[in-house]
Amino acid sequence: MASSDVARQPDQGVRPLSLAGHVGFDSLPDQLVNKSICQGFCFNILCIGETGIGKSTLMDTLFNTNFENFESSHFEPQVKLRAQTYDLQESNVRLRLTVVNTVGFGDQMNKQESYQPVVDYIDRQFESYLQEELKIKRSLHNYHDSRVHACLYFISPSGHSLKSLDLVNIIPVIAKADTISKSELHKFKIKIMSELVSNGVQIYQFPLDDETVAKVNTTMNGHLPFAVVGSTEEVSVGNKMVKARQYPWGVVQVENENHCDFVKLREMLICVNMEDLREQTHTRHYELYRRCKLEEMGFKDTGPECKPVSLQQTYEAKRQEFLVELQKREDEVRQMFVQRVKEKESELKDAERELQSRFEQLKHLHANEKAALEEKKRLLDDDQSSFSKRRAAAQLLQAQSLTANGKKDKDRKNYVGLSYVMNVTVKAPADCAAAHGWLALDYRHYTTVPYRYTEQVVCLSVTLFWLHVKYPPV
Amino acid sequence: MLLSRVTMKQHSKQQKNLEGYVGFANLPNQVYRKSVKRGFEFTLMVVGESGLGKSTLINSLFLTDLYSPEYPGPSHRIKKTVQVEQSKVLVKEGGVQLLLTIVDTPGFGDAVDNSNCWQPVIDHIDSKFEDYLNAESRVNRRLMPDSRVQCCLYFIAPSGHGLKPLDIEFMKRLHEKVNIIPLIAKADTMTPEECQQFKKQIMKEIQEHKIKIYEFPETDDEEEMKMVRKIKDRLPLAVVGSNTIIEVNGKRVRGRQYPWGVAEVENGEHCDFTILRNMLIRTHMQDLKDVTNNVHYENYRSRKLAAVTYNGVDNNKTKGQLTKSPLAQMEEERREHVSKMKKMEQEMEQVFEMKVKEKLQKLRDSEAELQRRHEQMKKNLEAQHKELEEKRRQHEEEKSNWEAQQRILEQQKLDASRTLEKNKKKKIF
């Protein structure tokens, strides 16, 4: 498909020149045609209609062949689209025809849902073409174009209103037209057309811009929608075998223009306007789809200052955006981690601190206990020492009393006589001499001490005794 | 990696035979009608030194005064630097309208130092590609005028010796941007043998330098193949152009009048002009456009978009990924990034967990240690307590024993002293 499909207008700076002879570029259309024939043509038809309305039969009749058709049941859970591709050839022209059938259309309880799979299918074909067109390395001239070029809308004679479908050339067709009488048909056609208009369904108008076909197209436009009958069976009429349907009351001939509009449909769809249907799909419907899609993706033709933006700039801007977004995401992830680490760290620190304080507590406890223990020990030591002093003093006393009863004066020097209660603190050996001297005085006053004596005195005397022994008077 | 010509292979899906008239055999007529209505466009570039007869040849080719005294040819418009200029003319023939753009390069090869004189040409071709790329990539595409250069006629001076360095340089730099058709200009200055020799030499050099001149497509048609082979044998075409019509043998022909005869432009034995005209205009014009669109333009486009997508990052990865659109590429990169992020997250998570475990372990160890020491101390203290208790008990026991003893002794003493007193008293008496 040539991409510069544009009506060329002579612009400024173009000089028209006359030719002095036959140059030969009038063969250009032929060159183009030869190329197309070499490449082959491609056409895709979508048939929408209820089960059993005659879609497959009509296709077979239109293309004079038997497409592999599977009879569908009425119990499909949802609408499925089945596309089959065939390579047809007529004289030297090769056509790759794809027939897409809607299976289970209108059989569901909720008829509104029937349209969604169809819309999705149409969009998918556009999408894959768009994707191919946007690729860096693409091969558009080799690409198998699967975009829907024509959509045959089958209306049953009991006439249901149809929803609008975007992005496709719609050709409404009244199926099983042999069940309507001619008078009813005319009224029915008007009713259908007004319903279509009121539902906003844009049907395909046969083009009027080319003088060669304008006239026939205008006439045909007036006969829409075409009331058709399909049949692949042949019946003998006169001396010919024609495609027809045999009834007890007569034979409906498919190719008889009085009986139905089949021939008109074939003329319009295939012979006259097939190329236009393809062109409309590409230049109108596809462009619309593409524009919407690109705008969705954020592409614009003009930059912020309303200056035209080249493709490179757009892509570079997008790439920048994209890189910034990636960077942001990376930073977010890192940030989150830093946060978690901080939190966990403080948690752990708290735990540590707790442990530390417990440790301190225990230490304190221990210290206390130890101190208590020490105190007790000290007390015990004190008790023990005081007890042993007592004991010693008592022993001394006993020893003394024994000697007092036996030898009185012997070794008096060696005994310190108990004198009056005296409180002498003997601190250091240095004091001994003084104490000793003092005591020497009292020495002479050796008297028996009454039985009652304080322990203190005993202690003192004991101490003094031992002192005397230890530190003899000099 | 550059695209080369590919002829479309037919995939046979399901071949169907038709019984009866369908009507799509009329499709070619429909295409014909539409193309005539649309009109045609063609951009032809002529390159060569001045005085080689370029303008004359163009006038002869299109049988019109494209270049005239009012619109002088490139050789009359030489400026200081190489210019690239275009003239647009509209011609009609047999109901077919052709918008012809002739691009010429006054000043090419005419300076003393011709280095880089091909640069303006390259720039021009690239800028036309860029215009088309931008127009094609717009969101709102309406008019897409195609001003891409579809063919370049390169004029070789008839030196008889071979290609000049400038010729080789030019063709090497432009053979991947435009269809080059090399022509031997002013062919009437060489005898047929000289011409033959010259042609052989040129083709040899072209092959040596791996220059890709325009290749005629292979066809299935035997007739056409014969013609194509004939053309191939006579490359490069040696042409003669003329603006004057001379009468020869009662016929009015275009030619150049010499004292020794008339060199006829359209005589196949005199020069290859007819072959050129037939090939360029009557049979291969469409193919030239197609090759420009499908090969040269696509090469430019993919290079441009790859540069935009990868921003100059040239690693081996990019070579295999050119099948995506830049956006799809970004999508892919985004997905890669997401998975990279996931991995990073996982790693960081792992490290984090590990460190936390370590720390917790340490804490637990210290706690256990603390507990242990506490237990130990407690035991210690308890032992000491017990010891102390024991000592205390012993002491108390000892003390009470001794005190009991003392009490007995005291009693004894008391008794003894009482007895003594009694005795003393007795003595006194």
From TrEMBL, chain A:
Molecular-function annotations in GO: GTP binding
InterPro entries registered for this protein in UniProt: G_SEPTIN_dom, P-loop_NTPase, Septin
This protein's UniProt keywords: Coiled coil, GTP-binding, Nucleotide-binding
PANTHER family membership: SEPTIN
CDD domains per UniProt: CDC_Septin, UDM1_RNF168_RNF169-like
Coiled-coil positions: 334-368
Key word Signal present: no
Gene3D superfamilies on file: P-loop containing nucleotide triphosphate hydrolases
Septin-type G domain ranges (all copies): 39-296
Homology family: Belongs to the TRAFAC class TrmE-Era-EngA-EngB-Septin-like GTPase superfamily. Septin GTPase family.
UniProt cross-references to Pfam families, sorted A to Z: Septin
Protein name, as recorded: Septin
Automatic annotation (TrEMBL), chain B:
GO annotation terms (biological process): cell division
UniProt xrefs under InterPro entries: G_SEPTIN_dom (IPR030379), P-loop_NTPase (IPR027417), Septin (IPR016491), Septin7 (IPR008115)
Stretches assigned to the Septin-type G domain: 38-307
Short name of any one Pfam family annotated for the protein: Septin
Record's compositionally biased regions (Basic and acidic residues): 366-401
Keyword Nucleotidyltransferase recorded: no
GO-annotated cellular components: axoneme; cleavage furrow; kinetochore; midbody; septin complex; spindle
Annotated compartments: Chromosome, Centromere, Kinetochore; Cleavage furrow; Cytoplasm, Cytoskeleton, Cilium axoneme; Cytoplasm, Cytoskeleton, Spindle
Entry superkingdom: Eukaryota
Chief localisation class: nucleus
Keyword Ribonucleoprotein (UniProt): no
An example Gene Ontology molecular-function term: GTP binding
UniProt keywords, alphabetically: Cell cycle, Cell division, Cell projection, Centromere, Chromosome, Cilium, Coiled coil, Cytoplasm, Cytoskeleton, GTP-binding, Kinetochore, Mitosis, Nucleotide-binding
Segments for region (Disordered): 366-405
Family: Belongs to the TRAFAC class TrmE-Era-EngA-EngB-Septin-like GTPase superfamily. Septin GTPase family.
Record PANTHER family: SEPTIN
Protein name (Swiss-Prot/TrEMBL): Septin
Organism: Collichthys lucidus
